[in-house]
Amino acid sequence: MCQEANFQLGPDVLAALERGLKEETSPAGKDILRQLIENARIARENSVPMCQDTGFTVVFLELGQYVHITGGDLYAAINEGIRKGYQEGYLRKSILGHPFERKNTGDNTPAVIHCRVVPGDRLKITVAPKGGGSENMSGLKMLKPAEGVAGVKKFVIEQVSMAGSNPCPPVIVGVGIGGTFEKAALLAKEALLRPVGQKSTLPDIAQLEEELFTEINKLGIGPQGLGGRVTALAVHIEVYAVHMASLPVAVNINCHAARHKSIIL
Amino acid sequence: MSAEVIKISPPLSDEDVERLKIGQQILISGKIYTGRDAAHKRMVELLDQGKELPVNLKGQIIYYVGPTPARPGQVIGSAGPTTSGRMDAYTPRLLAAGLKGLIGKGMRSEEVKEAMKKYKAVYLAAVGGAGALIARRIKQARVVAYPELGAEAVYELVVEDFPAIVVNDVWGGDLYIEGRKKYAI
Prior knowledge:
The complex is a heterodimer. Chain A is an alpha/beta fold.
């Protein structure tokens, strides 16, 4: 799964790049989008990672409540899979064991694992390798409720604007609104898992996604930040219930190499 | 934005660098060196101690990349640029030591831009995330310093028509600022 996620760009992202190619007016921007599409083809055909940053392996588990896992530690098994996948797939090992010692663990473990217990008797595993460059451009703010939708829009646009060329635009912007501090961040990351361009099922949120998408693409950042109209391929927003005193908003930016792979057991 | 493609080959002189302008497309052939944060830190420490660098950077180009491991029979794995801003703290020292070209992606600090004007050097952007495509232009790769750093070691790469775009020139131009201004609505 780690290998497939890194070698094969999803059809949703490819379609978004093709759409971007039609909409982009900058010649350099068009050229870059063509190169990205060509890059995805080479990666797929030759089993080469599309990007050298094969990421922090973020794993989402949806564990059915009737599932009983036997024979060992599930998290250890996931890390073992990553160890094997990254070694055998010639993927880059980018994880350092301690933020200050900064010594490479040598096998890209440990993963960041998010587990949610759900009804049913299945286990869904989603592997989403996340590059450092775009992750570094993410941010979170605890807004005052009075700032409302306008405050959320302002923060999201500022965040993408500040990121500029750094997160490898065109980007996918994941936004989490509501919940607590950590819930907002998780929502933003989960928003990135949605197929690119699929709208929120909530009409007001879908409307906000559309408005932010339009505003962000007016910034002029363009592919790779060299100037252009296609800065974002999509804006995805997830929301959650919120404390009466709070309005948390988190922005998690994904580069154009938006990689994820799911299986259901 | 110029459609003209300019071919360059290190070592570069002041004059070679002076004729490069923002927005120009560049094809690089010859030897270039790789380096990321860890290697930069070590090289600046050597300079601080008055010691020689493991490679002579005079007229050379450094590419900010941490490639994936090569499969058997491959020269190099995926090899796209990493975010240049992380090297900003170290770059002016290396420019003072004679480095002429930097390849990466993303914005540079004011200090780096000033140093590029002062020491006559250019900053070039490669396409971030096009690691599989770029790897095809790399014909040879060998580690020349800090093998213990793994993907962060300094490699000498032999490249052929390696594509890049001039983002910062010695005249103070910045394509990230100019390009964005041109397309902002």
